[in-house]
C-alpha cells in the first residue's frame, strides 16, 4: 500500500511540476483569421504572421526554389464558399492549403487539397489542386510584417496579395458575379409581379451604370428611385454622375446641386456627400468649358 501511495505522490508531483513549468506567452507569429467578400464569393484566410526582425527574408530565411508554407506555424489555409478562378485556374468551393516556391523573379503558387498539415511537413504534390506561376514584384518600402490580403476589388473579384520585406506577388481572383446580378435584376425589376422598392431601382441602376450597360435604362431606374424616395440625396448624386457620363452637363449640374443642398440639410449625416457633390460640381464645370 505504501508503495502505491508513493507512486501516486510521485506522479502528482511530476504533473504539478510540468504544469507550473509551462509559461503562457504570446506567439511571435500570431494566428490571423480574416474574412473578406470578393465579388459574390466569401473568403476566409488563416495564417501565422511572422515579422522580419532584421533578418534577410527571401533568399535568406526563406530560401529560393524551396517549398514554403507561406506563413508561419500551421499551413496557411484559404476557404471559399463558391467556385472562383485563381490566375485563370478553376478553384471549387472548399478549404485549401496555400504553399509557394519563391524565386527572385517569380513565385510558384500551390493550392493543396490537404489543408491540415503543420507547415510544409509531409507535403505531397499528388494532393495539389492547382499550381501556377506569378511574377515577383519589388517594393520600395520594407514590410516588417508578413501579410496576405485582398485589394483592387471589382464586382467580379480582386487581387490576392502576398507580401513581406520588399516583395509581393499578386494573384488575380475572378468571381463570375455579373451573371448572377443581371439575373437578379431581371427577376426583381423586368419580370417583377409585385411592388418594386426605391432601393431595388437604385441598386439596379447603379450596377448598370458601373457596368456601362443600357445607360438609358439606368437613367429610368434612377429617376424611379428618386421619385419614390426624393430625400435620398445619395440617389441624386449618382444620377448626376450618370448625366455627366452621358455628356448632359446641364442635368448633371442640376442633380449635383440638389444633392449638395439636401446633404447640407440632413439632420443625421451627410455621409460624405457634401464633399463628393462639391467635387462633382467642379468636374461638371470643367467639362462644360
UniProtKB/TrEMBL annotation:
Looking up Gene3D superfamilies in the UniProt record yields: Tetratricopeptide repeat domain
Range of residues in the leader sequence: 1-21
Q: What are the ranges of the TPR repeats?
A: 199-232
Do the record's keywords include Signal? yes
Q: Which InterPro entries match?
A: DUF2911, TPR-like_helical_dom_sf, TPR_rpt
Keywords attached to this entry: Signal, TPR repeat
Instruction: Tell me what this protein is called.
Output: Tetratricopeptide repeat-containing protein
Q: Origin organism of this chain?
A: Dokdonia pacifica
Lineage runs: Bacteria, Pseudomonadati, Bacteroidota, Flavobacteriia, Flavobacteriales
